[in-house]
Amino acid sequence: MAVTPRPEVAAAALRRTHTVFNQAPELVGADLFSGNQPLVEATVREGAPWIAERATTLGRIVGGEPLRWGFEANENTPVLHTHDRYGNRIDEVEFHPAWHRLMALSVEHELHSLPWRSQQPGRHVARAAMYMTTMQAEAGFACPTTMTFAAVPALRSTPELAAQWEPLVTATSYEPALVRATDKGSALAGMAMTEKQGGSDVRANTTVAQPLARFGLGPALAGPGAEYELTGHKWFCSAPMCDLFLVLAQAPEGLSCFVLPRILPDSTRNAFHIQRLKNKLGNRSNASSEIELDGAWAQMLGEPGRGVATIIEMVAHTRLDCTLGATAMMRLGVAQATHHAAHRSAFGALLADQPLMRNVLADLCVESEASTALAMRLARAYDDAEAGVEEAELFKRLATAVAKYWVCKRAPNHAFEAMECFGGNGYVEDSGMPRLYREAPLMSIWEGAGNVMALDVLRALARSPQARDVFLAEVREGAGADKRLDAHVARLSDELTGAGPGRAHGLEARARAITERMALALEASLLVRHAPAAVADAFCASRLGGEGGLEYGTLPASCDFGAIIERHRIPA
Ligand SMILES: Cc1cc2nc3c(=O)[nH]c(=O)nc-3n(C[C@H](O)[C@H](O)[C@H](O)COP(=O)(O)OP(=O)(O)OC[C@H]3O[C@@H](n4cnc5c(N)ncnc54)[C@H](O)[C@@H]3O)c2cc1C
Question: Among 169, 215, 270, 446, which one is most buried in terms of CB atoms within 10 A?
Fold first, then answer.
């Protein structure tokens, strides 16, 4: 018997415009460490199996609520308060609570300090695994995390300053209040090198450091730990709410490095004035500022006139983190794109089952795995170098520049392709992909933009033929596994050792090309040794064998797309 709907039900049905289907579910609740198979394997391989349990706990945490904090911290960007209501300078930046939650998460899990607190072998590798896992929730808070981590080796150049600051910057409590670090028992560190007239070329710095005379105690002292007054400006100074800054300024002996606290020993505020916050493309949860130092009190770190040599220790560790950060972004793109494609259909089939989309996804996975292998191998070099292995020190010096250049360069287009896998949804903020896309170029620009890094590779090669030999020896550990790699390494070796044609000609102009070839050789060598055959073969064919195109999704059709994607997809 036909049933006639009641009039109000029929009217409701008419008002219902459509049913939502064929939209991928949100990727939440995943374990962002254990679901990242290449990272799990690299963590064990490079010497930190002991961190797996902690990283898994963190991976589960990060795959949950922090994802929302990342959105909130970027939608509610930091606000600068230069003065209080009475006109007094305060120079404070107000952050959304989500930012503070992310910072607390980072500090409590030792992302800023693990290698300096732990005595375990493999502690840089362990931190790298934790850092790359957490960066997938949000990247902005990684900036103060990294600078705090990286400040420690530079602080150690002056033992009395290290004794004062290291316990504070490695503490695992997060306290954002702008009070004396000794009162709150913790500190975060930033760096201020870049000025309006020059960032890469810090020798152009004009900020002046004047030695301070000590109240009738005779002439001003110079040298490590001595007190100075700094006057000048800095054009980029990120995370200005940090408690101390490593600052470059011109002392009478030349460019020198200083430790500058925001709060003075007598609890008053240092003359560190925030002029404005930068309106940035991405990295919007984090505050990056322009500052003026108006006779700010500071202490010299390292030797007078040796500012670059002192701060380079900090710079090297931040460059390591740029590589880790760019790798984490690629991993995020792969996790999201493979998840989306596994749930979205077009033309009657899941995207994940369509040959051309499988090629794109597999290519993104291959790049992500190559970056992961390289980043984790680099982290191990930091462990080995600290343990006193001479070859590791040489490898670290050269490979840091190579990896910072290459992995960071690969990230922006990787983010774009991952975004395109979502179609229109990828272009919309809710997906998180625009945020990833905006963040990606930053890793390449700061801490040494592309050209500067490529030139740094040439510098390292010129200074130390041993570094070149150690690098080539590492690459050759993959010899015999793949003919394309062998041929590539033979050409690279000729080029680096001078046997190749026209070696010296136009060397500087070829710096990017040389660095790229070195990076590809190292990545391929790591993959043929440690990755599944499907991944290594796809990499060598497309990146070394001339069988790939300029865009992602141009792997040879013979590649095993299914095996590659399955390895990288976060299990449902
Ligand atoms: C969001 C953000 C936050 C930042 N935070 C900080 C911070 O906290 N502290 C800080 O000190 N700095 C910070 N920076 C500054 C950053 O490190 C510099 O912008 C960067 O080092 C480049 O310096 P520059 O901007 O002066 O560019 P320039 O030095 O003018 O370089 C411009 C271009 O020229 C290229 N170039 C330079 N020299 C050569 C050469 N010899 N041959 C060929 N090409 C060359 C560079 O690769 C670059 O592409 C931040 C930057 C950004 C974007």
Answer: 169
Residue 244: closest CA among 221, 205, 278, 272: 272
The tens digit of pLDDT for each residue in 11-63 reads 666 678 999 999 999 999 999 999 999 999 999 999 999 999 999 999 999 99
Euclidean distance between the first and the last CA atom of the chain, given in angstroms as a whole number? 44
- Token pair, residue 411, equals 């990230």
Look up residue 218 and give its two tokens: 């005779």
Do 178 and 263 touch, CB atoms closer than 8 A? yes
Of 187, 107, 92, the C-alpha closest to 145 is: 107
CB 29 within 8 A of CB 572: no
Q: Largest Cα–Cα distance of the chain, in whole Å?
A: 109
Asked whether 195 lines ligand 1 (CB < 6 A), one says no
Query: What per-residue confidence (pLDDT) applies to 36?
Result: 98
The answer to whether the Cα torsion of 426, 430, 436, 437 is positive or negative is positive
Enter the tokens of residue 399: 């490979």
**pLDDT score for 125:** 98
Beta carbon of 158 within 6 Å of any ligand 1 atom: no
Residue 117 token pair: 């607190």
Mutate to test the pocket of ligand 1, among 77, 193, 200 (most ligand atoms within 8 A of CB): 200
Q: Report how far residue 388's alpha carbon sits from residue 391's, in angstroms, rounded to the nearest whole number.
A: 9
Decide: 238 in ligand 1 pocket, CB within 6 A: yes
Is CATH 1.20.1280.260 what the domain over 49-305 is classified as, yes or no? Answer: no
Q: Which of 75, 126, 35 minimizes the C-alpha distance to 285? A: 75
Report the number of secondary-structure helices (H) and strands (E) in the chain: 21, 11
Cα–Cα–Cα angle for 175, 179, 180, rounded to 5 degrees: 105
DSSP H/E element including 80: strand 79-83
402: left (phi over 0), alpha (psi -120 to 50) or beta: alpha
- CATH 1.20.140.10 residue ranges in the chain? 310-568
Q: Is the CB of 305 under 6 A from ligand 1?
A: no
pTM: 0.96
CA distance 148 to 169: 6
Span(s) in the chain for CATH 2.40.110.20: 49-305
Q: How far apart are CA 85 and CA 76, in angstroms?
A: 22
| Domain 310-568: which CATH number of 1.10.3720.10, 1.20.140.10, 2.30.40.10, 2.130.10.10 | 1.20.140.10
